[in-house]
Write a structure and sequence with these properties.
single chain, alpha+beta, four-stranded antiparallel sheet, three-stranded mixed sheet, 7 strands, about 20% helix, globular, plasmid
Length: about 180
């Protein structure tokens, strides 16, 4: 009797109706203004990281998270864009630590410290508010850039992620302290 019941079920009946491949094919990314300006069409954008932000664009603290499934590789660099639009990139492969530290002044919130170890040791200190998502995205190597809030741009929502300062410090290998 049990054999008769089981024989009525077919593998196709218990498989999911939508495979991950079907979901990936049906994904249509939204157009990025920066990518459109560079002539990258909407479907092509799904396989590229966003270009670095430029002054005059709407402010966002970080890039949209990348889908490794669509990219096929991890991002190579994490770029830090300052309030004047200049950027400096560090290899994700050199990122050794992501940590929360207390702010420098009383009343300051915690800051995010990223330690890169290459020929020299560098700490990048990211200050701002609502940086929890930034911490996670950097830890997972899922975003290609972070952007310091430009002068004259004010975020009105308390829930907005805002990076108010990005600072870099060379670290002495022997003492582990910042070089002056």
């Amino acid at each position: 009797m049990d054999g008769d019941v089981l024989s009525k079920f077919k593998v196709a009946q218990i498989r999911p109706r939508t495979s991950p491949g079907d979901l990936a094919e049906s994904y249509t990314p939204s157009a990025s203004p920066a990518a459109s300006a560079l002539g990258i069409d909407q479907m092509e954008q799904s396989i590229y990281a966003e270009p670095l932000p430029r002054l005059g664009e709407d402010y966002r603290a970080h890039a949209k998270p990348l889908s490794r499934h669509r990219l096929g590789v991890d991002p190579k660099m994490l770029h830090f864009v300052d309030r004047l639009g200049w950027s400096e990139g560090y290899a994700f492969s050199d990122l050794r630590r992501v940590s929360w530290k207390p702010g420098g002044k009383p009343g300051d919130g915690p800051v995010l410290v990223l330690r890169f170890v290459e020929a020299v040791v560098t700490d990048i200190v990211v200050e701002g508010r609502n940086l929890e998502a930034v911490h996670t995205l950097v830890s997972e190597a899922s975003i290609p850039w972070l952007w310091e809030q430009p002068e004259g741009i004010f975020m009105t929502k308390d829930s907005d992620v805002v990076i108010t300062r990005i600072s870099s410090f060379l670290i002495d290998r022997d003492s582990g302290k910042r070089k002056t």
